[in-house]
What does this fold into?
Amino acid sequence: MRARDKVAVSTLRATLAALDNAEAVPVDEAELRGVAFEQSPVGVGTTEAVRRELSERRVVEIVRAEAAERLDAAAQLSAPAHADRAARLRTEAALLHRFLEDSRTA
It folds into this structure.
């Protein structure tokens, strides 16, 4: 990261965003309709919801899914004009697999 590897930074940010999204609490459609404005809760923290806590297994599943998604996208880019993009996607997938391997040895 110190070498400012843009591909690695971009990949890790996207994966962290996927993990962050997985921690989000689903909103029930009934909650979206809510209550009358006058009856809604007010004050500090009323809009905050406790986030899910992901297990290590679930985190690994999400990272694997992110890598697989990149490999699938790279496989679909068969035109020579997209060779650079496909190579970048394969590099991103390899980076994610490397992190998974490193986490097993740690």
Q: What stands out?
A: The helical segments are 6-23, 29-33, 56-76, 83-105. Residues 83-105 form the longest helix (23 residues). The chain has a mean pLDDT of 84.
